[in-house]
Input
Amino acid sequence: MKTNDVILQTTTKVVFFIIFLFSIHIFFAGHYTPGGGFVGGLLTTGAIVLLLLAFDLKTVQKALPFNFTIMTGIGLLLSLGTASGAIFFDVPFFTHAFDDFTLPLFGVTSLHTAMIFDAGVFLVVVGSAITIIQSIGGDS
Amino acid sequence: MEFVLLIFLPIVAALFIPILFKRIKGIHTGWFVLVIPVLLFIYYTTFIRTTMDGGHAISELQWIPSLGISFVSYIDGLSMLFSLLITGIGALVVLYSIFYLDKNKEKLGNFYVYLLLFMSAMLGVVQSDNVISLYLFWELTSISSFLLIGYWYTRDGSRFGALKSMMITVFGGLMMLGGFILLGIMGGTFSIRELIAESSTFVGHEFFTLALVLILLGAFTKSAQFPFYIWLPDAMEAPTPVSAYLHSATMVKAGLYLVARFTPIFAVSEVWIWLVTGIGLLTLFWGSLFAVKQTDLKAILAFSTVSQLGLIMSLLGAGAITMHTNEAIFSFAMFAAIFHLINHATFKGSLFMIAGIVDHETGTRDIRKLGGLMSIMPVSFTVAFIGSMSMAGLPPFNGFLSKEMFLQSMLAIRHFELFNFATWGVIFPVIAWIASVFTFIYSFYFVFKTFAGKRKEKPLPHEPHEAPVGMLISPVILATLVVGIFFIPNVVGKWLVKPAVMAIQPYQYSHPSEVAVHVSAWHGFASPELWMTVGIIIIGGLLYVSLSKWQKVYAIQPEYLSLNAFYDATMTFSEKGMNRLSRFYMTGLIRTYLLYIFAFLSVTTISVLFIQDAFVVDMDSFSKISVYGVINAIILLLAVAFVLFSKTRLGAIISLGAVGYSVALFFVIFKAPDLALTQLVIETVSVALFLLAFQHLPKLNDHGEKKSNKIVNGIIALGVGVTVTLVALSAHSQKLVASISQYYKDTVATEAGGGNIVNVILVDYRGFDTLFEIAVLSIAGIGVLGMIKLRLARKGDPDENK
Output
């Protein structure tokens, strides 16, 4: 059965980027306004799921040629590494550091090691969720 | 130097063994291993000077200081003696194994790793002053023994024997841990020295006898005392060097060590003296009686070991009498115990090695097939003869000296006046004497049935010949010691035995020279021990000659009445019973398991809530109900009802999504943007996931559930709902501790450098939670991937035992 989903596919091509950019925004804004790595990751997952619904699994795999299982591993290592990095500075495990820096283009920006940790969370959420969805959806 | 680290030297060396075994094919791996025990032996001999003066050496390594647990190497006379035994016999056994195990056929890498692991563990047991680290090493000896017994793991017997020894010794070890903890509670410390110093306050404590019995269980299982000895004969499946080392010279003596070490604490107790002496004597008798029944060379030696361990155990018990009286006749026992422990290690070690040689050179250990090897294997015969005669208690071998002292100590028990010993004490020398007669018989049985007489007509699996020189070095050295110690018993006594006796009886002696025992071979015609020995030789000799006539008596005992049958039945029963129990409630349907989980959850929570009288509703703290809230609640209820009564799965999935979205709306109404956002996205993704997996889901099915099942389900569902509501109401209405939210508000900008408390909690305040959650999420993802992509179950039979 072949369904006609031109409308869905056309909108998806635009909406996917909007959701994805929004998820990046929400990830960076998380420390001060609602959002963060977890929600950001879920939003990206939602965007990819939309792609999956509009197109089929193979097309999406071609469009996003990432190994999501490895992405999960990288994310986990990133988070654990941030947490344990504190040990090398002779402070207890999981101590974060933050300060304000003046960067070109951005001006005065607050940089925080929690963001690296959160990036790990982001990657793990996207990686595991897509791994699960791909395995179940791609099973015949 | 911190010599506590030397305990770990063998384990560290073990790390390199597999590499050496793989890389260097030309040289037998055993030569590299041999260096370790030789070095340690030489190092530990330097402590003799200290311990001879009644001193001790101590070295400590902190492990968990907050719990008072550390690695302490405490070397006094007792632990020094054991350390020398472990490293000395260890070196001889490694040397022997180089010729016993073929470097091309055997997995030497595994063998020597296990052996070195054992060496470390055993050194740890005898040197630890901290009971918790002692326990750790104790279990490590059980594990390495398990691995060594199961070394030839393709044989059924090896696996069975390994499991049996593990079951029994680990059971004992756990009991012992309980005893240690009770001691720790009574004394407030885990250090054995401090416990001994405080031991007078333990008497009459409600835990005292319990701790005593538990620790004895540990010692008895390890030292193969009646009725736990049954693992030792099965442990003979191990390669012979292992039997010589673990199962006769060292590991099985760990129980004796434990009893000796704790004598100063427990000797005041009547239970201790009766149990240690009584069980020891029973084991001595039982072991010697059944040794004559065996037809396998190593089985004879195994039962003989059981019996000799019982002998030493009973001497340790008799030695504890000195806590109650200072009369000189009781002071022999402890000396005899330690002295016999050394002698036993020498003669039994050599006998095991000879049994291994016979097995190696003839291809069988069955004594019914052997005979007449004397002329073919003269050196082996000489060693076996020396060892057996020493075991039988004949001069001029060291076993004679300690055997006489044993009889002397047993005779002395009659004169002990406390604890009913004056009435019952006469039994002790009688049993000891009968057991000695049987010891005499099995010693002769072992050596002469193998080496004397005529060759059997049926040819042996291999054409027998004398063993290679390298294999004979170790047993010859041990046999030399057997003869040598007979002539210089008092030197051995001064250097090794007396410091050990002092360590066991600190309440009596403050210097080793105070132990007023002089060993002599000749006590004059008036001594009763002499006539007891003469009696043993005459009766034993007569019985040995007529052995073929009465050996059939053993067949009277039916197989199903033995302790082994009891062990087997227990194992079968627990395995089958557990299997049946699991099958009873494991239906394979997730819905059944959910029923268990939810029923348990709601019943326990609700009962605790009402037993503790914790159910409180404070209406004042509720927020106002808005119109939007009411509308949203109605939508929510409708959606839930639709999920329940939907006829198709698609309808149920969509209405479940509606439930989720309306919950998200509640978050919006109550101004929780983070939660609302997350909930919305989660709902979207999970509905999408359901739709993706839709084609794989089976049709809605009631799995043959009846109406009554549905009612039960309904009740449980209702129970869960009620539970959650009650808990939520009560938790909101009463606060045991002040809310932490104010702290978050105060510190979010200053301490955490953020503005959004929810996110800062996730990444900083409670970062550990998040870290573990993403770990769980990854595991779940990989698990799903594994289950779907690999599908192991489809390929073969899922039952690993078939």
Q: What stands out?
A: The radius of gyration of chain A is 18 Å.
